[in-house]
Amino acid sequence: MTPRPCTDGTFQHLSVDLDDAASGKTGLTLCSAPGRPVWGSDQWAINTAYDMHLSDTCVDIAALPQCVACLRVAELLAEPGTAPPLHRRTPRPDFASGFTGAEIRGVLRTDIATGAPLGRRAAVHLLTFTAVPDQPGFGDLVGILDLVWDMGDTVRMGQVTDWAAVVGFAAAADVPDRDRQMIAVAASLAGGPPVGLEAAVSFVDDPAAARRVIEAIAIAAGHGDRWELTERPAPSAHT
């Protein structure tokens, strides 16, 4: 955590980091202007670093004085598009609209890594296997959340907001029937519309899909990290 000079050369901005050059951390410049876009976790990060003896400086962000540039930023905040980037954080999107399929899969998996319930883990295991996240408009069904993680770092993750809507989206999307079946099972595992398992998982000719469903059921049962599936060659027609 390193104090840095403000735009007028005085000590009126603060960079929230541990000033660790080896890790490449650059910190975050905070402005003391009224209405500044500062996350609630910023003061917490300062306090935590101080309490853990990682810094000998503990600063109250709200008590930082204002310089001319800071006051100008306060005026510019009425027109957010014109505020200098130094004084602004990029706002968190509410939904994954505009995200690529790979980015959607990434934020969904981050949610799993940070402790999602078993049913949601199993559902995401199926959803990310399908082509549904790649379809235009799917990001509107994935909410974006920021989780304060270790040492005040923020982890960005995504969660499906309505599994029933995902089932409807998949039904109308240009995806294989296999994907629609897997989405139906995923929604059921996540607490959405229930499905008859026998009819929904008839993947006799698709070993990869069948394996994914079996893995999802193991995850939902709390054994996803204990079992490993071993595929055997299909029996010959002459045996």
From TrEMBL:
<protein>
    <submittedName>
        <fullName>Uncharacterized protein</fullName>
    </submittedName>
</protein>
